[in-house]
Design goal:
The structure is a homodimer.
Chain A lengths: L5 H12 L1 H15 L6 H10 L6 H12 L6 H24 L3 E2 L2 E2 L1 H5 L1 H22 L2 H24 L8 H25 L4 H25 L14 H4 L5 H8 L3 H12 L7 H11 L2 H19 L7 H15 L3
Antiparallel strand pairs in A: 1-2
Helix pairs in contact in A: 1-16, 2-5, 3-7, 4-5, 4-9, 5-7, 5-9, 7-8, 8-9, 9-10, 10-15, 10-16, 12-14, 12-15, 15-16
Chain lengths: ~325, ~325
């Protein structure tokens, strides 16, 4: 894949710059998933954690610490913390969404039921706090506990607004900023904090993470409809079937005539869908360039992520972080 | 009630000793339940938090801090923290158990569905960590994050063992120590820690909380069958219907003949219950004095809780904490 796609190569380059640290993060994760009293915990957690996620968030923490010249040990713990929080939210998301699949495999709630998914999520969340406490940094604890609260708020807000077609994108942007970008932001920010970087650098890293996270979610939401090149894979249309008013839908809705708006209201707000609706939806998106405009929006956040790093001296790590921002949007282009 | 029952009067005395602090805790709880972006959060949280719980756990934190002569402000935050953790676990428990009722009212998952219950639980859990961080005490953060992990482990262990009849009480005791006593223990311990008490006092408070929590759960499990006086209320037999192998069941099973053991296996392990089974179960418990023995066990933990406090100089607060331990078992006597 890296050979074909220059942006995927950018991710590989970033990963190789933190490869040694990442191995230690993986070992720590494996070590801390263990529960003496409940063997079901590591079994279920491993299903998700080993399921081929890219470890993008913990890699960002490691990279941010390295960019700031950190030479200590705590970034390993923080990277594991970030991955645990992410995994806990995935477990709970799948329960909330009633998802059957996660990363192409049967989801944990499908295999073990909702009960252990809720409780193992709670366990991983607690473990993440134990790991943070071990860093001894109250500042880091503040950042990550705030991020966790913001993520939960975003998920609750999404719950009550996800099927609502709106005239503007305010609520949508608020939701993705909270449910996705908040953890990216905290992941990069704590890398700088633990390195004792000057506050301007820490702010720049937070900004980079926030913009990158927004771009990531925008790209994901375009990708759910096949992306700009309309690659039709197995999971195309999941958001449509669930009636999620993501940005591609909002753009097509906002630019549609009364007939088209009626179509979206029926499919998204009332969730009364018929055969052929997804194809019709894709046609309307094409007519209004909804996917192109979504990716364009992602690109503007990537440019902002890029420029946030400009205060750091040039280095292979800064270059890799800049390039990986491009990778995040290119997935959907 | 206080007039009739000397042990309930003990709880009132403890409550009145911390009444001013408790008002501030309640104000802080109300203040921190608010979420600007998701109004559903305070609505759902208030349903549970204002539902007439006794606030026993936060009261214990306030009392422990006061017993150690604390004059600062952080015990208010810690008491709210403890109540938030407790509420989060209740929300998730009700989802896991599929409960329709909580404290005699429709449960949150019944009224709003499982989705917001999971997510608002996550939010309250995050809020609890934000509150702890504000105390600036890494020791407190360590104790409460450990307790949270232990609680989750206990819940997962319970999930896989709750319908198992065993020849001994080891797993049962491990579960109740984790799912119930761990938070009591942390609640009293952090009161001592925040007061800067000597380590012997902190250990004594932790011991008191642990023993009290075990006694509390034992009494609860006896109460579910009407307690020693077999008061038959609306909720008698809930544990039986759910096939929970609590101590009263284990005692009756362990002391039963082959016929009786077959009855318990059918009702608890296979959960094939028929009309009249609860009455038969109560008869077997009576024959084997299962409820009396459960309460006796609770009393021995209360005695241990009592004696843990002996290193503190005599005071109205020490007296109230000793007496409230009696109250915890007397509920079921």
């Amino acid at each position: 894949m890296s050979q074909e796609n220059p942006d995927a190569a950018a991710f590989d380059r970033l990963q190789s710059l933190v490869a040694q640290d990442l191995e230690r993060v993986n070992a720590l994760i494996a070590n801390r998933m263990v529960s003496e009293s409940a063997p079901l915990i590591p079994e279920l957690a491993a299903h998700l954690i080993n399921a081929g996620g890219k470890r993008l968030r913990p890699i960002l923490t490691l990279a941010a610490a390295q960019l700031c010249g950190y030479t200590g040990e705590h970034h390993i713990r923080l990277a594991a913390t970030v991955e645990f929080i992410h995994t806990a939210t995935l477990l709970h998301d799948d329960v909330v969404d009633g998802s059957d699949l996660r990363r192409g495999k049967a989801s944990a709630n499908r295999l073990w039921g909702n009960q252990p998914s809720v409780l193992v999520g709670d366990f991983l969340f607690s473990r993440s706090f134990q790991l943070m406490v071990e860093t001894g940094s109250l500042e880091v604890l503040g950042i990550l506990s705030n991020a966790s609260a913001v993520i939960a708020e975003g998920e609750v807000l999404q719950l009550s607004t996800v099927n609502s077609l709106a005239e503007d994108d305010k609520i949508y942007m608020r939701v993705i900023r909270a449910k996705t970008a908040a953890l990216f932001e905290a992941a990069t920010q704590v890398g700088g904090v633990i390195a004792g970087a000057p506050s301007a650098q820490i702010e720049a890293l937070a900004r980079y993470g926030d913009e990158l996270g927004i771009a990531f979610q925008l790209a994901d939401d375009a990708l759910d409809y096949g992306g700009a090149t309309r690659r039709l894979g197995k999971s195309v249309g999941d958001d449509f079937r669930e009636g999620k008013a993501t940005l591609p839908v909002l753009i097509a809705y906002q630019n549609g005539d009364e007939d088209q708006r009626g179509f979206w209201r029926r499919c998204i707000e009332k969730r009364r869908q018929e055969e052929g609706d997804l194809e019709h939806a894709l046609g309307l998106m094409s007519r209004h360039q909804a996917l192109e405009k979504t990716i364009e929006r992602a690109r503007s956040h990537i440019a902002a992520a890029h420029s946030a790093l400009s205060l750091f001296p040039e280095s292979p790590m800064r270059q890799a972080l800049e390039d990986v921002a491009g990778f995040v949007a290119a997935r959907a282009a």
